[in-house]
Design brief:
- Chain A: It is a multi-pass membrane protein.
- The complex is a heterodimer of chains A (301) and B (300).
- With 301 residues, chain A is mainly alpha-helical.
- Chain A has 2 domains: 2-79, no CATH class; 91-299, MetI-like fold, CATH 1.10.3720.10.
- In chain A, 73% of the residues lie in helices and 0% in strands.
- The longest helix of chain A is centred in the middle third of the chain and has 32 residues, at 90-121.
- Chain B is mostly helical and 300 residues long.
- Chain B folds into 2 domains: 2-46, no CATH class; 63-297, MetI-like fold (Orthogonal Bundle), CATH 1.10.3720.
- Chain B is built from 15 helices and no strands.
- The chains are: A mainly alpha (301), B mainly alpha (300).
Chain lengths: 301, 300
């Protein structure tokens, strides 16, 4: 009690608090350090395993660094690992994933940004209702809608094709992206929009000339969100594509979990790293924007 | 008079008002009505039929559901989901909050630590599953390493032991997801006024009590959002199990989402798949509806 009163009345006086090696700091940094090591271990194990030859993997333990560094597993994972009848490695899946991710990111963001813009600035009767359905839809398990979409895609002749998968990604990216853009556009000053209206600008010209240039940050956030999300997708890839058009994640799973043949753990780990590389690079380059992206996508959900 | 005339001429009907906005919203409207509402109703409707290879409208009442709840594999799936769900909810909230609280102590290298804790979240569940399959491999992984250090009887082989396999999946999921929870919690902590802390310190309240009884209740909105996000993710868990255990050993680590997929696309028993996915929808509704009611119902 007396302690707290001196604190309250006296202000900064007395000995300077010790900063560097207090018990509290040792506890905090110690805990954080141990947890950080735990989080980094799998990445470390992936890297060292992928650089060992198979005999060394069988002998040593998974944490020991490679005695003899070899890049053969990487070459094999990329170019010659087999999935089913195809023996051209993960490269096929990589290019499929690129061909899926790029159009999906563009299409889903184009649709969702226009949606968000219409919802924020051009409300019409029923627009809020559709938006509510969209947001509720984000919580419906995908499994419920898997088969109806198979039927729709089959009807329009896109089942099993990459374009079909692009449409699916655009559909399921819509709720969160629309929310993201709607909230962002709603936060822009309304006077700007009104002034443009007075000057006779219409729906599209306001979107293209005023909204787009002002919302570069939110577009970057959306791109980060979508690249990682679509690249990492497994379920839609496995349902809506054929073996020749499987994305990388599906191919990785097939390589690692195929029952026939000798397990080559080093090749598996190289393949895993290759698959994780794109989202990891996006993550490390984008830094704080990634955090902002997931927080924006999630907290307001 | 003239102005009303001209505006009436410009707007012949309510339908054409805002026409560009409506046209631009067609993809959204189609998605909302056809895919989300239509697709959901379609699946629920066909779950009452005996569709096998192709969907057929031949109603059999609740037969599919009776069969579903009599299938051991489904019961195992539900049990796994319950264990996995409860534990991952508790652990990710607790670990996420503790990490966020530690990072919130105005420490140095905060960005470095946050980057390390969050990077697994950028990786897919497939990658996560495959890595942990390797780490938990009893012949080469953690178990073998601990044994080689001299503890010969050490046993930790969740992926080959059907009674604890779901905990192996849980470890991988926590590794992947806690960083994200931490970020949400950190955002919540940063949103709390500095003055609250000062006031608590003036009153001589220890830090852990301030966290537990003052800060946590104030973070209620963030906590609820986090809870809903984690819960919705738990029900969807699929790729992690496929990649890490393929549902094995036997059927010990099956989950409902995998049941749905396997019955729809492998066993060619669509009716079972529809019934199982409807049950998943129901379980999500049980989580979401009270939350939506609390969150949005009160404002009106």
């Amino acid at each position: 009690m007396a302690m707290s009163q001196t604190l309250a009345t006296d202000g900064p006086r007395g000995p300077k608090p010790r900063h560097t090696f207090s018990k509290r700091n040792i506890f905090i940094y110690g805990t954080l350090f141990v947890v950080a090591v735990y989080y980094l271990l799998p990445l470390y194990v992936m890297v060292v395993t992928s650089l060992k030859g198979m005999p060394e993997v069988r002998l040593g333990n998974i944490f020991s660094p490679p005695l003899e560094i070899t890049f053969e597993p990487w070459v094999k994972a990329w170019a010659t690992a087999c999935t089913g009848l195809n023996c051209d490695g993960l490269s096929r899946g990589f290019w499929n994933s690129v061909r899926i991710t790029v159009p999906s990111v563009i299409l889903s963001i184009a649709i969702a940004s226009v949606n968000g813009y219409a919802l924020a600035n051009w409300r019409f009767k029923g627009s809020e209702l559709f938006f509510t359905i969209l947001i509720i839809g984000a919580f419906i398990p995908y499994q419920v809608m898997l088969y109806p979409i198979v039927i729709i895609l089959r009807e329009i002749g896109l089942y099993g094709s990459l374009s079909g998968l692009v449409i699916v990604h655009s559909i399921f990216g819509m709720p969160i992206l629309t929310l993201l853009f709607r909230n962002y556009f709603a936060s822009l000053p309304e006077e700007l929009f009104k002034a443009a209206r007075v000057d006779g600008a219409g729906f599209w010209s306001i979107y293209l000339r005023i909204m787009l240039p002002m919302s570069v940050p939110i577009f970057v956030v959306a791109v980060i969100l979508q690249i990682t999300g679509i690249w990492n997708d497994f379920l839609f890839g496995v349902v809506y594509t054929r073996p020749e058009t499987y994305p990388m994640t599906v191919q990785l799973n097939n390589i690692v979990n195929s029952v026939q043949g000798v397990k080559e753990y080093n090749v598996n780990m190289a393949a895993t790293l290759l698959t994780g590389l794109v989202p990891l690079v996006v993550y490390f380059i984008s830094g704080k924007l990634f955090v902002r992206g997931i927080a924006a996508g999630a907290v307001k959900g | 008079m003239a102005s009303t005339m001209s505006s009436a001429a410009k707007r012949p009907s309510r339908l054409f008002r805002n026409l560009s906005a409506k046209i631009a919203s067609v993809p959204m409207i189609l998605t909302a009505l056809v895919v989300f509402v239509g697709g959901t109703l379609w699946t629920v409707l066909y779950s009452f039929t005996n569709s096998r290879l192709l969907p057929r409208l031949k109603f059999v009442g609740l037969d599919q559901y009776e069969r579903l709840w009599a299938t051991p594999r489904w019961l195992v799936s539900i049990e796994n989901l319950a264990i996995y769900g409860v534990l991952s909810l508790i652990f990710s909230l607790v670990i996420g909050f503790v990490l966020a609280a530690l990072l919130d102590q105005k420490i140095r290298f905060e960005d470095t630590f946050r980057t390390i804790f969050l990077y697994p979240f950028a990786l897919s569940f497939v990658v996560t599953g495959v890595v942990w399959q390797w780490l938990l491999n009893p012949d080469f992984g953690v178990q073998a390493v601990v044994r080689s250090l001299g503890w010969e009887s050490f046993a930790f082989d969740p992926l080959y032991n059907s009674s604890i396999v779901i905990y192996g999946v849980l470890i991988a999921a926590l590794w992947q997801g806690t960083g994200f929870v931490m970020c949400l919690m950190l955002a919540g902590l940063r949103g709390i006024d500095e003055d609250i802390w000062k006031a608590a310190r003036v009153d001589g309240i220890p830090a852990w009590r301030t966290y537990l009884f003052i800060v946590l209740p104030m973070m209620r909105p963030v906590l609820i959002t986090t809870l809903v996000i984690i819960a919705a993710g738990i029900v969807k868990v699929y790729d992690l199990v496929v990649a890490q255990t393929s549902g094995g050993p036997g059927i010990a680590s099956e989950v409902p989402a995998k049941y749905v997929y396997d019955y729809m696309f492998f066993a060619q028993n669509l009716g079972q798949g529809f019934a199982a996915s409807t049950m998943m929808l129901l379980s999500v509704a049980i989580i979401i509806v009270p939350w939506a009611y609390l969150e949005f119902g009160r404002r009106r």
